């Protein structure tokens, strides 16, 4: 392309100057080297007007309003890739541009990156002041995953993903809130300060963005929960349900279900209910932490007894001396009368 030709010419000229041994050769050499560096730097540091992910379609806009008789030409670097004069095609295909003359690029790869320049001619005269456009093509980011590395009192969090290109940037959130200070792939924290914090990392570039699953450090492990059991305690018109289990660590959480439906409001170890409202309800409690989960057997309050239980209890506790008033004891029963002759 033009840049390479200019660099080659300047390098050749510099060589000739040195060989001729001119008095000002040293000064000229320095000047030309500075110029050469400037050209290369300018080319490398061009800002991208447009970005596209690999295998994506992209359209580069034509800002000039075409007349039917205009000639439209698109260049990629210095190569003509589209040339249409009125309705006659010279280079390319009609569907390489849309109805406005904007350039369509399909399924782009790195070979499609670079500078694109549109030109429009009217009767052979170049019209409009159309600027070149620089297209950058890059890989979309890959799915990130957070890991932690432990070191006694510290923990290092790292956002793992397959790309290492400088265009990839990082964003961290703590307990659902973005931390604007954390912008690197890895960072260190004091373990006791972040023991319960949940982290996510987001990786992004100009063409894509992906976020990791939530992650909590694994330097400290919780013990599995123990089997829970529901109990009830009665107080006249109220009943207190408690989910009994052996652990009391703050990591253990509770979930209650009423008649097999989870009640999102009940999240504590114990709760109170009005006895008449919960008399027939069946409860279960689930206890869980990061490493395990267990659910109790179904339970109904035992402050009131069912009719069958009450009847059974009545018969089993009856006093044998208590007889029905219509059934006197045997010794009081009338003896059969003997006939007299």
From TrEMBL:
The keyword Ligase does not apply. Residues 132-211, 224-295 form the Ig-like domain. Its main location: membrane. GO terms for cellular component: membrane. It comes from the Eukaryota. Keywords: Glycoprotein, Membrane, Signal. Residues 299-341 are annotated as: Disordered. Residues 315-326 have a biased composition (Polar residues). Transmembrane segments: none annotated. InterPro entries: CD2/SLAM_rcpt, Ig-like_dom, Ig-like_dom_sf, Ig-like_fold. It is found in: Membrane. This is Ig-like domain-containing protein. It comes from Takifugu flavidus (sansaifugu).
């Amino acid at each position: 392309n033009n840049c390479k030709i200019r660099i080659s010419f300047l390098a050749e000229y510099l060589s000739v100057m040195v060989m001729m041994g001119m008095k000002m050769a040293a000064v000229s050499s320095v000047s030309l080297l500075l110029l050469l560096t400037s050209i290369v730097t300018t080319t490398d540091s061009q800002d991208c007007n447009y970005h596209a992910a690999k295998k994506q379609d992209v359209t580069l806009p034509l800002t000039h309003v075409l007349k039917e008789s205009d000639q439209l030409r698109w260049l990629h670097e210095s190569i003509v890739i589209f040339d249409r004069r009125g309705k006659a095609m010279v280079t390319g295909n009609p569907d390489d541009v849309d109805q406005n003359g904007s350039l369509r690029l399909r399924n782009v790869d790195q070979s499609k990156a670079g500078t694109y320049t549109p030109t429009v001619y009217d009767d052979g005269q170049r019209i409009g002041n159309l600027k070149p456009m620089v297209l950058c093509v890059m890989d979309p980011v890959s799915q990130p995953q957070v890991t932690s590395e432990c070191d006694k009192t510290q923990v290092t969090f790292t956002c793992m993903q397959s790309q290492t290109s400088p265009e990839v940037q990082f964003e961290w959130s703590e307990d659902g809130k973005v931390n604007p200070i954390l912008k690197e792939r890895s960072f260190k924290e004091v373990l006791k300060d972040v023991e319960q914090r949940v982290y996510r990392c987001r990786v992004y570039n100009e063409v894509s963005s992906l976020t990791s699953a939530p992650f909590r450090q694994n330097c400290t492990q919780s013990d599995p929960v123990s089997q829970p059991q529901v109990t009830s305690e009665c107080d006249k018109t109220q009943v207190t349900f408690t989910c009994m289990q052996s652990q009391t660590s703050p990591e253990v959480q509770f979930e209650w279900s009423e008649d097999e439906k989870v009640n999102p409001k009940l999240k504590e170890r114990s709760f109170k209910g009005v006895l008449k409202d919960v008399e027939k309800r069946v409860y279960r409690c689930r206890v869980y932490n990061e490493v395990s989960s267990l659910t109790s057997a179904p339970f109904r309050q035992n402050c009131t007894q069912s009719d069958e239980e009450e009847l059974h209890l009545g018969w089993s506790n009856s006093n044998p001396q208590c007889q029905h008033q219509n059934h006197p004891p045997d010794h009081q029963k009338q003896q059969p009368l003997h006939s007299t002759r």
